[in-house]
Amino acid sequence: MASVLVVEDDQFVRSALIRHLSEASHTVRSVGTALEALREVAHLRFDVVILDLGLPDLDGAEALKMLRSITDVPVIIATARDDESEIVRLLNDGADDYLTKPFSVEHLSARMAAVLRRSRASAGDGPPRRIIRVGGLSIDPLRRLAELDGVAVDLTRREFDLLTYLAGRPGVVVPRKELLAEVWQQSYGDDQTIDVHLSWLRRKLGETAARPRYLHTLRGVGVKIQPPAPEPPA
């Protein structure tokens, strides 16, 4: 079972979440403001944070950025906002998943289980794996380190998982549905989620969609990683 921090200022919603999570044998703490959430995370260890966006002291999107500056704990956004551009921005800022209110307790449980599976798998619970190399890219799955031409690349957990999955299949076009299933542990989802993380990865690898080096998107098919083509002689 998990240690969960619920950040929600609506007392009715907050009580319902606490009741449901406690009945599922999770350990639950709850706060109603962003500053309280930051204090909790700074002093206690949580397995997942459920973060409302409509907080009284600070917008949840800003709270997310502040959380990400001090912890890598998985964060599920709970919001009544359904604007696609804002959802993309939240994922880009480090959210692990999101739920649009109103949502069922079953939906929340499924999303929590998926996030926790990813988090625990990425913590190195499985057997040691070999170093993965693609061109000048080197990935150590066990230590969760990535280097490009000998220089460390600073990746979020989701970026690292996506890059590692693709690098383990160099030259193979991986369908988007497979990425959602294996990296996000979801049987369905928005392709925009993948595009956001690919765009972020490309920037950190020094490339763009228009001028790819490692990451290549085949429209309507999927994504593949391959070593860069050799530079033509001068």
Give a topology summary.
Elements lengths: L2 E5 L3 H13 L3 E5 L2 H10 L4 E5 L7 H11 L4 E5 L4 H9 L4 E4 L4 H18 L9 E3 L2 E4 L4 E4 L2 E2 L4 H11 L6 E2 H7 L8 H14 L10 E4 L3 E4 L9
Helix pairs in contact: 2-3, 6-8
Structural write-up:
This protein is an alpha/beta fold and 234 residues long. It is built from eight helices and twelve strands. The chain has helices at 11-23, 34-43, 60-70, 84-92, 105-122, 157-167, 176-182, 191-204, and strands spanning 3-7, 27-31, 48-52, 75-79, 97-100, 132-134, 137-140, 145-148, 151-152, 174-175, 215-218, 222-225. The strands form three sheets. The protein has a five-stranded parallel β-sheet, with helices on both faces. It starts with a strand and ends in a 9-residue tail after the last strand.
User: If strands are numbered along the chain, what order do they take across the biggest sheet?
Assistant: 2-1-3-4-5
Strand content: 15-25%
Sheet bearing the most strands, described?
Answer: 5 strands, parallel
N/C terminus separation: 60 Å
Mean pLDDT: 86
Query: Rough shape?
Result: elongated
Number of contiguous helices: 8
In terms of structural class, how would the helical and strand content be classed? Answer: alpha/beta
Q: How many beta-strand runs?
A: 12
